[in-house]
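Handout, section B. The chain below has 271 residues.
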Amino acid sequence: MREPRRGLAETLSHIDSLLGDGRSREDVLDVGRLSLDSGVPREVVEALLEGGEPPAEDITDRIVRRFGHLRETRLRPDGSRHSYEEIAAAFGASRASLSNLVNSRRRTAGRGAEQRPGRSGGPLASTQAGIEKFYFGQPNGWLSAEPETALDDALQPVLRGLEEQAADPMARLRHAHGLRRLAARAPQLAEEEIQLVTDWIDTILERRRAQGAHDAQGAQGAHDAQGAHDAQGAQGAQGAPGQGVRGRGVQRAREQGAPTPGADAPPRDVR
């Protein structure tokens, strides 16, 4: 049997490895559904998914709380809760046995020295098993399972679904790439041909991602080089000889066709 915390971590790691294509846990994990299936409060599910620890809880409190969770969420077809009598009769118990279980938490509150039901594995064990079986065959130990174990069990259908998608090229076309129209025509193709098309799309997308990263890096390098060039040009123009106020006036005169100052002066007598 796996250690609860390690088992949950391994399952989450496996799920992460199967996501791919830019998907995250939020795309495949429904916290509300996981809470409903596991009997673990929503805030505790969120903490466990982030690597946190659940709050301490007495095992009898946990059993009673999850029993209440079942009664509130697994309803009759008419929307009402199953009665204690109905549940108890399904496994040959009495209404009083369930009532005593639910009320035991209240009676023993504040009595730390008193032994609570469920620690000895006595009559409560059969009562627990009967409740679990009544509610649509919940697995044995569901009521008392530690939060990590309960959440790990609730994650297994998600994990199996991702494994099936990874093994099925049709599922990869539908879910990973969103190519539903192509997937709808896929029955006309052989399985190896579907796999070939899916792998080809994977390759194209990977090349496009790599090219996008390369282009972004090149654009940043060009921007940096242009900035350095502009700064160097500005520095050179500022310190170049003949480019002071007089130099700019001469250049402007030449462009306008005006005589350059000093151009018509007679040659100096050098004798």
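Note. Residues 150 and 162 are 20 Å apart (CA to CA). Compare this with the example in section A.
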